[in-house]
Amino acid sequence: MKVTISAIRSMEILDSRGNPTVRVFVELSDGTTAVSSVPSGASTGENEALELRDGDPKRYGGKGVLKAVANVNEKLGPALIGMDATQQALIDQRMLELDGTQNKSNLGANAILGISMAVARAAAASANVPLYQYLGGAGARRLPVPCMNILNGGEHADNNVDFQEFMAVPLGAPSFREGLRYVAETFHVLKGILKDRGLSTGVGDEGGFAPNLDSNEDAIETIIQAIEKAGYRPGIDIAIALDSAATSFSSDGKAPYDLKWSGAGTKSSEDLIALAEEWVSRYPIVLWEDPLAEEDWEGFRKFTDKLGDKIEVVGDDIFVTNTRYISRGIEEGTANSSLIKLNQIGTVTETIEAVRMCRDAGWRYFISHRSGETEDPFLADFAVAMDGGHLKSGSASRSERIAKYNRLLEIEQELGKSALYYWK
Ligand code: PGA
Ligand code: ZN
């Protein structure tokens, strides 16, 4: 029997930074209900789908989302009533038509994505299959390696570290559960090391520590020290991944770069590439995201020429999970991987398309949370469904981060012996 959408409603809630975001409730004709909540970024790409905010200075400094909520309740929701809930692509397409803009600026990507995710979850529940299986099929059984952001800098912290994320990657672990343990233990050991040095152990937006360090390099060396002290072998049990989020210290998306937080001064694209080459030769780095800024396509290409056969080069702000930019990247050899964030593009269907494009090109793809998150663990199921092999969901603190890791623990347990876990 066809199960159709019978009700959609929305409300304004708060994200992990205490900023408003959209929650959507969907009800189906068989009585199934589902809810989803939309994340929000801070170091956003210029070409991301538009997150609709009220701009009313009297509420939340203009960040309210009542307009997006009203768009769900009054425009998008009513137009979807009666549609077959399993027709995800058709439902998402209908919302794109209702919005009518390239970047969802009319009704808001936050409104549209909230519905898109809640519909997927409702349809899965109605079919009585887990969300990862509903979206990924019967073969979905690979757990992602959790790239845990244990040290934060850039826009995500108030310290003197320029690069935004330093991640511990448990690629040598035998299972997700063990991998999570490796990096959670490393996180706790890192805390002790920072404490012993008299440094701050307060955490940044994604739950990693945000101390004032001697240099960006000090961040890497301190993490390596933590890995060893926790009893693991750097590069074998646990490797390192970085997200420079270089747009945030660029000149309007291009060179020159200003390492402003550390005070290390102005750098060209070539300087940053040379620094990366040196680091990659000295440290067990396996992945580098946004080493250059979103409009520095040429710098990105040169970076990939130099390092693409050694490490995964991921584009985040430059591709914004959009097949228009990913296809250009594939053609020009800009990177060899794309970050994948549902709210950068705004529907589940388009996100899946971005993943498919990467896969078809032999690229990798890196499934990601946002720095502003909620307790919704949608991302965990999505990562398993997409068979991406790795995800980032922040550190071993802050429940909005842990919610995804905990859901992955559940999925792994449910899959039992059929679960897979490997880096490449
Ligand atoms: P954002 O950061 O969610 O603030 O954009 C995450 C990232 O840059 O990968
Ligand atoms: Zn990024």
What does it look like?
There is one protein chain. By secondary structure, this protein is of the alpha/beta class. The chain has two domains: 5-128, Enolase-like, N-terminal domain (Enolase-like, domain 1); 142-421, Enolase-like C-terminal domain (TIM Barrel), CATH 3.20.20. Helices cover 39% and strands 16% of the residues. It contains 13 helices and 14 strands. The chain has helices at 66-80, 88-99, 109-126, 131-136, 176-196, 216-229, 269-282, 297-307, 323-332, 342-345, 348-360, 378-386, 399-415, and strands spanning 5-14, 20-28, 33-37, 145-146, 148-152, 165-169, 239-243, 257-259, 265-267, 285-289, 312-315, 337-340, 364-368, 390-392. α1 packs across α3, α5 packs across α6 and α12 (378-386) packs across α13. The longest helix is centred in the middle third of the chain and has 21 residues, at 176-196. The radius of gyration is 21 Å and the shape is globular. The chain binds 2-phosphoglycolic acid (PGA) and zinc ion.
